[in-house]
Structure formats: structure tokens, C-alpha cells
Write a structure and sequence with these properties.
By secondary structure, the chain is of the alpha+beta class. It has one domain (2-120): Glutaredoxin (3-Layer(aba) Sandwich), CATH 3.40.30. It is 39% helix and 11% strand. It contains five helices and four strands. It has helices spanning 10-21, 38-48, 61-66, 81-90, 113-120; strands spanning 2-5, 27-30, 99-101, 107-109. It has a four-stranded mixed beta sheet with strand order 2-1-3-4, with helices on both faces. Strand 1 (2-5), helix 1 (10-21) and strand 2 form a beta-alpha-beta unit. Helix 1 packs across helix 5 (113-120). The radius of gyration is 14 Å and the shape is globular. Belongs to the ArsC family. It comes from Streptomyces monticola. This is Arsenate reductase family protein. Keywords: Oxidoreductase.
């Protein structure tokens, strides 16, 4: 299992604390330093069963600069998927966190203790 984290994020630190307390075997990816490629983002989206706009932190400064809340400029439709993925790869701070890729091939946005426990059970 791998967990994408930003060490400054309290939800990420809580997820790591729980994984450690449960003795989980996992790898940490500090995704702001080890930025995922567009292909890696697409793969995680497929594992999550989500679209890029579903994991975008729209309140971040970069999101506001890009105008991501403007649904005319940034439509949330399949034809715009690659543009969103490109934006996430170029601005990884926009990626929701933490994301856990489970051993069964699925992934979760693990913002709650329940989600972390669910990932450990997969």
C-alpha cells in the first residue's frame, strides 16, 4: 500500500499515525516533492473511480489563479479530463490528500479514520 501525503497536512499525519499504530506495511510518497506524472494521476483516478475534478482542492491559491471554479472555462466533462489531469500534474498541491492505494488495486481518499481502516482491510 502507498499513501500520498503532504507532511504539513493534519489529515495526512493522522492517517500515518493510524497506519503506524496498526502496524500496516506501507510506503510514503510526498507527492509535492515526488510529483506524480499525468499517467500516474490517471492510474490513481481509475483506481479511485473518480474524475480529476473530484480530487481537486478548489480552494487552493493555484486553483483560484487557474480559475478552476469557472465551469465554462473548466467544464467537468470527459472531454476536459486530460486538461484537468495536466493541471494536477503541474500543480500537485491541488491534489486532495491523503490518497491511499490499496493492495487490492483500489484507492481511497483517506481523510477519515474509517477510510484509512477501509484501505487497510483491502
Amino acid at each position: 500500500m502507498e499513501i500520498w501525503i503532504n507532511p504539513a497536512c493534519s489529515k495526512c499525519r493522522s492517517a500515518i499515525d493510524l497506519l503506524d499504530a496498526e502496524g500496516a506495511d506501507y510506503t510514503v510518497r510526498r507527492y509535492l516533492e515526488d510529483v506524480p506524472s499525468e499517467d500516474e494521476i490517471r492510474a490513481v483516478l481509475d483506481r479511485l473511480g473518480l474524475e480529476p475534478w473530484d480530487i481537486t482542492r478548489t480552494q487552493e491559491a493555484a486553483a483560484k489563479e487557474l480559475g478552476l471554479s469557472d465551469r465554462t472555462a473548466w467544464p467537468r466533462v470527459p472531454a476536459a479530463r486530460d486538461r484537468w489531469v495536466t493541471a494536477l500534474a503541474a500543480h500537485p498541491k491541488l491534489i486532495q490528500r491523503p490518497i491511499i492505494t490499496a493492495d487490492d488495486g483500489t484507492a481511497l481518499v483517506a481523510r477519515s479514520e474509517e477510510a484509512v481502516r477501509e484501505a487497510m482491510g483491502r
